[in-house]
Amino acid sequence: MNVVMKHAGVSLSGDVRRALNDPALIEARDRHFARLEALFAGECDTPIRLWGVPGQAAADPYVQPGPWLAEALQDLANRAEAVRDKDVFRPPVIEFGLYGVRFVDRIFGATVYPSGDTWWGNPLEVEVGELAPPDLDSNPTWAQARDMAERFLMQDVALPLFGLPTIASTLNVAANLHGDRLYMALLEYPDRVRHDLEVINDTLIRLHRWYLDRVPADQLQPVVAAMRTQPRGHGQLCGCATHLLSGELYAALVAPLDETLLGAYPQGGMIHLCGAHTRHLATWRAMKPLKAVQLNDRAAEDLEAYYRGLREDQVIYLNPTKTMTVERAVEITGGRRLVLVTDRTETGTCRFHHRGQERWKRE
C-alpha cells in the first residue's frame, strides 16, 4: 500500500519515503563520502568527480514552503538511483537558496530585491562602526530559514543532504551592507570596520551553530551543496570580496575572523573563490581550519598557484572552464588533492549547476 504521510504541511507517499530511506542508496552515498574523506586525509591520489542532484520543484518556496519541499523530495525520489553511479558522486540535495547571496543582508535589515536571475540589495544607512547585531529571535528572514530546515527534519528521510542558505562571510556581508564606504573606512577608520566585521562574524557563527545543533552531521552541508559536498563536519565561507583587499589588510583584519568562523565546524571547512585571490595564499596556507578551496570562473585559471601554494592537506574543488580544462587540471595536479565539479572527463567543458529555486524572486 502506498500510504501518504503528512508532516508540517508536507505530504509524502510511502514510495517516496522508502526511496529516500533506502539502505542500499544510503550505502552507495556513503561509499563516495568515504572516498572524499580519504582524499582529505591524503590517502587518495586520484581526482573525484562531483555532480550532485538538487531537488527541483515548481511551487514557490517563499509562499508555499510545504508544497515546494514535497515536490523537491518527490523529484529526488524519482532520481535517487543516480547515487549508485560508481564514477561520479551524485548526492541528492535539498537546498532552498533563500534570498541568494543577500540572505544575511536581509537579516541585518537591508532591502533586497530580485533582478534578472539573482538578488540585489541596497546598503544600509547606518554609519560604518555603528552596526548592531540583529535580534534573531524575532527576525522574519531567519524564521523563514529555520522553518524550511524544521520541515525537512520532520520528514525523517535519511538519504538527501541538506544545503544551507548563503551565510557568506564577514567581508562579503560588510561590503553589501556598507557599499563603497567600507573600503574608504578600511583606510581611514580601521577600528570602526573591525567593530562591524566582528558583529557580522558573531552573527554568522550563531547561524551556523543553529544548523550544527539541529541537522544530522550525515546530512548537513554548506551552500551549493550539490557541487561543493565535503566530508561531514566541514563548513564554508565565501571569499569573493577578498579580491579587493591587499594581502596585508586581509591578513591583519579579516583572516582571523574567517579562521574563527571555519573553526566553528568540527573539521574546519572551505573558502569559495571566484576572482583573483592568490596574494592571500600564504595566509590561507597558515590557516589551520582551512581544509579546501573551491575555484570557479577567474579563480580557476590560477589552479597551479593554488596547488603549489597551499598545504599538502588542503584540497582543491575545481569548476573546469574552457581554458582550465579537466585535462589541464589533471596535468597540473597529477590528479592529487582534486575534486572536479563535472560529470564528464572526456572534454574540457563543464555544465554549470543552476538551482531551480533561483527562478523565485519574491521580496
Structure description:
The chain contains 13 helices and 15 strands. By secondary structure, it is an alpha/beta fold. Mean pLDDT is 92; it is low at 1-5 and 345-363.
Count all strands and give the number: 15
- State Rg: 20 Å
Uncertain regions spanning at least 5 consecutive residues:
1-5, 345-363
User: Kindly, what is the distance between the CA atoms of the first and last residues, rounded to a whole number of angstroms?
Assistant: 41 Å
Spatial order of the strands in the main sheet?
A: 5-3-15-14-13-12-11
Helix content range of the residues, please? Answer: 25-40%
Mean pLDDT: 92
Helical segment tally?
13
Helix-strand category: alpha/beta
Query: Which range does the strand content fall in?
Result: 5-15%
Q: What composes the largest sheet?
A: 7 strands, parallel
Question: How would the blueprint of this fold be written?
Answer:
Layout: E1 4-7, E2 10-13, H1 14-19, H2 23-40, E3 48-50, E4 53-54, H3 65-79, E5 88-89, E6 92-95, H4 103-107, E7 112-115, E8 118-121, H5 140-154, E9 161-163, H6 170-178, H7 181-188, H8 190-214, E10 220-221, H9 225-228, E11 235-238, H10 247-262, E12 269-273, H11 281-286, E13 290-295, H12 303-309, E14 315-318, H13 326-333, E15 338-340
Parallel strand pairs: 3-5, 3-15, 4-6, 6-9, 9-10, 11-12, 12-13, 13-14, 14-15
Antiparallel strand pairs: 1-2, 7-8
